């Protein structure tokens, strides 16, 4: 009986004292060591407990509210150079990224302050005339650069130095150019049959046989001409708040392998960061006065085969649009309010609310 009792107590102690230790490398710009210990009735449960504690310790080091947080203040660095990779303690295995949702949740808590250098930045340029400058708030979530290359599968456009999200001038200009094309089509009363040819002209090289198209091309550019309007990058004017958003693909096999979609497929959630609504961005549009004066003095020639053609420019039409107070404002309002800017615009992202009294 005694031996049986001692054996029973020994067995109970063994069940209660099972331990498992984890020690792994965390690479975030440099190497860190994360350790954890777990206990349980058996080794399997102790290992499970250790993994749980390891993840807890790991997220504690990433916690943006922690004094020991490893995440840098620069959001651009956090999403490019400091993405956490876990490898074994001896570095023998390749390693894996931590769960993307957990990482992006911590990144979304980052307080993105606007640096003094950006607040004090002078958007005036010598030789240019300002024709629009205004702070406009987004009325829906905004995401630029969602499909840019990233090991996180999704991305966001951030300034390399300041780490703040911004709207590239090329994106801003692109939607305004689309509105300009729409206005021109309305004035021309084009039929569906003529629309394709007209579109090729508008987005092609400088047009020598249609003065209306040429006027708009001079302002918004052509394949062989840099636009006289300069659309600057739009930066936020105040602290930026990020929101974690999700795309939930229910039919991954269908989209990837063209298989028949069905309810038996598991959803594949994809997490990404967005700029929260009601964030004010500063938009600026300038007119290249120096180049325009040169064109007025010297004219503008284009090559057609071996010959050069001097374009017949309606100088008054170009200057009338620039001098008209609401010319660019109307285009910007239509572009930002009804077209949107950035990614996922067809789902309502990237919309802005420009007021009628906006300067």
Q: Could you walk me through the main structural features you see in this protein, from its secondary elements to its overall organization?
A:
With 359 residues, this protein is α+β, with helices and mostly antiparallel strands. Helix content is 37%, strand content 22%. It is built from 12 helices and 13 strands. The strands form 4 sheets. Strands 5, 6, 7, 10 and 13 form a 5-stranded antiparallel sheet that branches. The chain has a 4-stranded antiparallel sheet with strand order 2-1-3-4. Helix 6 (169-188) packs across helix 12 (327-339). It starts with a helix and ends in a 6-residue tail after the last strand.
Salient structural properties:
single chain, 359 residues, alpha+beta, five-stranded antiparallel sheet, four-stranded antiparallel sheet, 12 helices, 13 strands, elongated, disordered N terminus
> Cα-atom Rg, whole angstroms?
29 Å
Mean pLDDT comes to 87
Indicate the low-confidence ranges by residue numbers: 1-8, 10-14
Biggest sheet: strands, sense, closure?
Answer: 5 strands, antiparallel
Blueprint of the fold:
Elements: H1 2-16, E1 18-28, E2 30-40, H2 43-62, H3 75-80, E3 85-88, E4 96-97, H4 100-108, H5 116-119, E5 128-138, H6 169-188, H7 192-202, H8 211-220, E6 229-231, E7 235-236, E8 242-249, H9 252-257, E9 268-275, E10 280-288, H10 289-298, E11 301-304, E12 307-310, H11 315-323, H12 327-339, E13 352-353
Antiparallel strand pairs: 1-2, 1-3, 3-4, 5-10, 5-13, 6-10, 7-10, 8-9, 11-12
Helix pairs in contact: 6-8, 6-12
């Amino acid at each position: 009986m005694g031996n049986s009792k001692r054996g029973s107590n020994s067995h109970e102690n063994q069940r209660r004292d099972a331990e498992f230790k984890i020690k792994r490398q965390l690479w975030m710009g440099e190497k860190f060591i994360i350790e954890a210990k777990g206990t349980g009735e058996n080794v399997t449960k102790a290992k499970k407990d250790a993994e749980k504690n390891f993840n807890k310790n790991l997220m504690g080091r990433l916690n943006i509210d922690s004094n020991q947080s490893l995440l840098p203040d620069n959001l651009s660095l956090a999403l490019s150079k400091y993405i956490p990779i876990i490898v074994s303690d001896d570095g023998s295995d390749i390693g894996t990224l931590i769960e993307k949702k957990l990482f992006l949740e911590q990144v979304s808590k980052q307080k993105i302050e606007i640096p003094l250098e950006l607040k004090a930045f002078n958007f005036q340029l010598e030789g240019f005339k300002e024709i629009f400058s205004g702070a406009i708030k987004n009325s829906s979530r905004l995401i630029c650069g969602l499909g840019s290359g990233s090991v996180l599968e999704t991305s966001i456009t951030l300034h390399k130095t300041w780490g703040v999200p911004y709207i590239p001038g090329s994106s801003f200009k692109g939607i305004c150019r689309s509105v300009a094309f729409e206005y021109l089509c309305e004035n021309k009363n084009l039929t569906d049959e003529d629309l394709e040819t007209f579109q090729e002209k508008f987005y092609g090289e400088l047009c020598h046989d249609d003065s209306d198209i040429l006027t708009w091309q001079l302002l918004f550019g052509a394949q062989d001409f840099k636009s006289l309007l300069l659309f600057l990058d739009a930066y936020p004017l105040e602290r930026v708040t990020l929101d974690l958003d999700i795309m939930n693909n229910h039919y991954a096999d269908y989209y990837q392998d063209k298989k028949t979609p069905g309810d038996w497929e598991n959803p594949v959630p994809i997490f990404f960061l967005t700029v929260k609504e009601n964030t004010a961005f500063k938009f600026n549009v300038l007119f290249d006065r120096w180049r325009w004066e040169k064109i007025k003095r010297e004219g503008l020639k284009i090559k057609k085969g071996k010959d050069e053609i001097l374009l017949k420019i309606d100088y008054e039409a170009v200057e009338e649009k620039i001098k008209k107070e609401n010319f660019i404002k109307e285009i910007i309002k239509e572009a930002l309010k009804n077209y949107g800017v950035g990614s996922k615009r067809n789902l309502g992202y990237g919309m802005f609310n420009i007021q009628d009294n906006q300067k």
